[in-house]
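Lecture 7, part B: from sequences to assemblies.

Below are the input chains for today's worked example.
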Amino acid sequence: MLRVKRLPIDTYPDNTAFILRRSDGYSAEQFQALRKIRVTGDSCEILATLAVVDDDKIIGNGEIGLGEQAFRRLGLPEGAEVEIAQARRPASLEFVRRKIDGDSLGEAEIGAVIRDIANYRYSPMEIGAFLVACASFMSTQETLALTRAMLDVGSRLSWDSPLVVDKHCIGGIPGNRTSMIVVPIVAAHGLICPKTSSRAITSPCGTADVMEVLAQVDLSSEQMSSIVKKENAVLAWGGRMNLSPADDVLISVERPLRLDQFEQMVASIISKKVAAGSTHLVIDIPVGPTAKVRTQGDAVRLRKLFEYVARHMGLVTKIVFTDGSQPVGRGVGPVLEARDVMAVLRNEPDAPEDLRDHAVALAGHMLDFDPALEGGKGYSRALELLASGEALAAMERLIDAQGRNPAKPELGRLRREVEATKAGTVTSIDCERIARIARHAGAPMDQGAGIDLLHKVGSTVREGDALYRIYANSATGMGFACEFAGEGSGYEIG
Amino acid sequence: MLRVKRLPIDTYPDNTAFILRRSDGYSAEQFQALRKIRVTGDSCEILATLAVVDDDKIIGNGEIGLGEQAFRRLGLPEGAEVEIAQARRPASLEFVRRKIDGDSLGEAEIGAVIRDIANYRYSPMEIGAFLVACASFMSTQETLALTRAMLDVGSRLSWDSPLVVDKHCIGGIPGNRTSMIVVPIVAAHGLICPKTSSRAITSPCGTADVMEVLAQVDLSSEQMSSIVKKENAVLAWGGRMNLSPADDVLISVERPLRLDQFEQMVASIISKKVAAGSTHLVIDIPVGPTAKVRTQGDAVRLRKLFEYVARHMGLVTKIVFTDGSQPVGRGVGPVLEARDVMAVLRNEPDAPEDLRDHAVALAGHMLDFDPALEGGKGYSRALELLASGEALAAMERLIDAQGRNPAKPELGRLRREVEATKAGTVTSIDCERIARIARHAGAPMDQGAGIDLLHKVGSTVREGDALYRIYANSATGMGFACEFAGEGSGYEIG
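Predicted structure of the full complex, as structure tokens:
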């Protein structure tokens, strides 16, 4: 028996346990570093990676140190007695191994893997192995099984309505912040739209990151319910809702590995939307040479996969291919994108047109789900709600209901412009490159970091004209961003 | 600038750096946990995973704590000044990503990945992603490129002889400890055979683990050279020689993930053999229903891959398919296998016949490389050297030259027999299951742990007869092994 000691060491997302090398009753051989151990207390258990300590000032004999993450997950107080044992490999790792060998897995097998992942029984390395093995080949059946498994391990929200609409964009296009315009429009119309969004995975920011500039997004299910009851809608971060605990763990590995596979994307999105209680979903798939989806063929393959999985999960979908040839709007990064969104909602004359047009089109598709609006009338209704200021009013009410951010985050203090090296017309802007420069600058962690695009495709520039401005608050971030932009601005001028 | 402090915390194989959350000049946002940082000192640099500490008794303001692994790899004294920065992703991770997407990689790309891996720039998760991506598909060209890349990042040994023989078994068959019989035979004949072996990867023990029961195996290149000069041969652990630093890192991930792909196996073996200075190599591929290679088709595929890569690396090979239908010999585990090997070399009447026959056949193939022995005479020469005691004498000299182990490790104190649940004839023994039971018992870390097979295929047993005896020194290990054996003994009786 060892006594739990909370060690103020944060090793997120890993559970780490610290034990003295010469702790009574345990030999060094038995508990080598990197060996996983099982820590068992009264009716609770976690797996942890073991760090072996040679200094009894850090951890004493008879004690087990748990890092912040492990301490929280075990849920016992300091001094509680636990037993440790060499962890048995989760049995489901055999299925991962079979997947690596090229087998297809059945529903029970995928379910077992996902349950173990959601219960933190896999190391990041093991999760990575599962994801990469799935990336090499995954059948539609497996994708459906993965979706069901992810739904099964999470909580579900339910809304007292036969029509709960939602939209989702698969991402990849910087500045494409339509949700924050679409949701107030459909809410103003009277549809129920409890939108949960993620934070950025591989992009410089997600909708939750941008909404957070304006309002609280870290809401409980109860807060969400009461806001939806009053305002028809909400724009919340989905992570708090435990809608897909497995996905949250998967993302912690997908992010550093920059994995973004169709099958995992479909399973993640559909499981979360069903868990959030949506019945009707518009999915936006931008297609373009530097977007996530680059060819018509890939777009169709992805659409079919979405339709197959959604149909079997009882979700009505409308899938829209949109122009993903360049960033949407001007700003890229939380503060900058919030600025663009509000400019559209406020009908400001210089609000980015492409962002407005794109958002209105999507809102139209969502309004078309309303049986009261006969076929195709959604679009004009959406335009009307935006122009009249009803959408803006709905957004302001949403911000107040969620809790307006008193901090008013500002643009980064450090600014640098990237200039055209020759005169001509902008012929293309590389979405991936712009996204990576904005990430290097510090977005989304640094809310004020990002890129403000001063020219878009078709614009005429002179040599030395500023193409875009980089914002950052840290010199390191600005350094990385400029270095990276120096290797290639992302703009082509012809 | 931060001052290096050595923290007595072992997180092998990860580099871990500990920093106070509120350290001057750094914000929590900049250095979140799991973020990788670059630690740069005077002409040296490492990447490390960051752990954020909230207690200045563990690490003070202005200090950076380096775990044992990281401290050793950075190579600076305590108090040395270093700078830290958010690590830029190794550029070669883009190639890993492309491999995940299904691309084939070129020689320069694989070279870049392997250099970064050998320089500890990848996390275990990233290494796992590379390995699993390669497991899904790898061309022969890529396998050759991987072999060259692994050779290029390591040291090489050279021997003053045009004929340097070696043998390698791909493993998977418990108890198949032929090297320790073959090497003394060919050394007694006068061939140069500087054998480097690995420790167990996924098996209950490797040749280095077994040889270590008898003698020192952790030898420097210099020690190895002087032993080979005197004794023609050596039986050393290859890890110390830095022959394939990349492979050592890869193995640290392959082991917990239990990866064992043909392509990685071929690259690992051929690069190490070339690095060790071998010119002629016998490769033993056991084929059987529970071996690593299960069908004739797979065996042929693997042989062709070995031949292709070896030919391009200038290595002469002779590839032998052997019977991998059941374990070889009786003991499985370091002490038990050392016992069997010595019984064969001593010509003891009850020495395991299958181990002897197998070893003599392989030694014969190696002796056939000697131009002085005309075609096919190797086999009878091998028999002669074993029967005459010359091989035993060579082994005893080798043990003395390497440094006889004064400890004489003994069999595990804890013993349990697994009994036949019915009478009949043993029709098969599952190699994989026997190996896993022996690993659960504690082999190879616990040298005395393992399994002693009391019956082999074809043996007649009564109900209640002991099929095998499990040895262990830890109650936990014995518990796991018995539990696992209880789920299936690995024996079929018909």
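Note for the exam: Chain B has four domains: 2-86, 93-152, 165-242+256-402, 414-493. Keep this in mind when comparing with the next example.
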